[in-house]
Amino acid sequence: MFTGKTDKKLLFGLAISALCLFFLFRKIDFHKMADAFAGLDYRYLVPALLLTFVSYYLRAVRWKFLLLPIKKTSMGNLFPSTLIGYMANNLLPARLGELVRAYSLGNKEGIDTSAVFASLVLDRLCDGFTVLLVLLITFFTIRLPAGMEGIQHGLVTGGYITFALYVGVLTFLFLLRRHTEFTLGIVARLVRPIAPHLAEKIEAMLRSFISGIRFPGDVGGVIGILVSSLLIWFTAIWPVDLMLRAFGVVLPATAAMFIMVFLVFAVMVPASPGFIGTHHLACVTALSAFQIGSERALSIAIVIHAMGFFPVTLAGLGCLWRDKLSIKNISENTSQEQLREQ
């Protein structure tokens, strides 16, 4: 099902996860961890769980808007396919969940998988821009405890850099869409003197990317995408605050945003399926900025990861069973789709 190249990536990811877990647990007092879990207020976990599923449902809503130029799709197919995709991301290597998600919906709606996958590329771009916005708000508004002035100054500097990056990416995409040949010409002139062969590949990739992107043309569709994107991340960040409160940690709302930014970057690092280790280390690192002890921070990280891993995995497997599919069957089909695209 997977190539040798994928297997090497998987082994590298497993090694990274193991290293993160080693650093996390090497100096942990397990009695203090047990005390932290003993004080857990489970009442906060129920609304956190509900909000997590609301966030996934909103992802399906946004996906519906993104697919409007192709077909008017059913929420009865979009939501289960979204859950199946995130379940696959948790269980399969190489982030195959995106292809699984595209295959699942394409199979139900009778849409070509490559067209559905193109909508997911745009979906990820929407996430990227929203996360950058969260990043900006966090860097400029968060106030860390006394003694963390150096980190605070670094965050403000990071905010300016992020803002410049945000504007730069938006400008580039606007020019690529409106003035494709002119923009590709500039990219080629910049890259060709350094790497001629790479310039050709980049040009082909950008041309394929921009031709495959079909953005809703009506104002209602654009507003729907913008509003759903903001609500997706609002309902993803709020559970983090609730889980902090479950451990008796009361911090400003920007603290949950700060932690979420670290978690977003953590999933970009090669790791085992489910982002075990990298996710936990990112959460503990973010909490250390608020002078939360290692044992309590790791306990919080474990619960945040578990709440994001087990419910959607079980729900996705349930949807898979309802559709009379298996992970092996769907991953083999998506691997074949991937090979055809290459």
Describe this structure in words.
By secondary structure, the chain is an all-alpha fold. It has one domain. The chain is built from 14 helices and no strands. The protein has helices at residues 4-25, 30-38, 45-67, 75-91, 97-109, 113-141, 149-178, 180-191, 196-212, 219-246, 253-266, 278-288, 294-322, 327-341. Helix 5 (97-109) packs across helix 6. The model has no long low-confidence stretch (mean pLDDT 87).
The shape, in one word, is globular
Q: Work out the count of structural domains.
A: 1
Low-confidence stretches: none
Give the % helix. over 70%
| Biggest sheet details | none
Sequence-ordered SSE layout with sheet pairings:
Layout: H1 4-25, H2 30-38, H3 45-67, H4 75-91, H5 97-109, H6 113-141, H7 149-178, H8 180-191, H9 196-212, H10 219-246, H11 253-266, H12 278-288, H13 294-322, H14 327-341
Helix pairs in contact: 1-12, 2-13, 3-4, 3-6, 3-10, 3-13, 4-5, 4-13, 5-6, 5-14, 6-7, 6-10, 6-11, 7-8, 8-9, 10-11, 11-12, 12-13
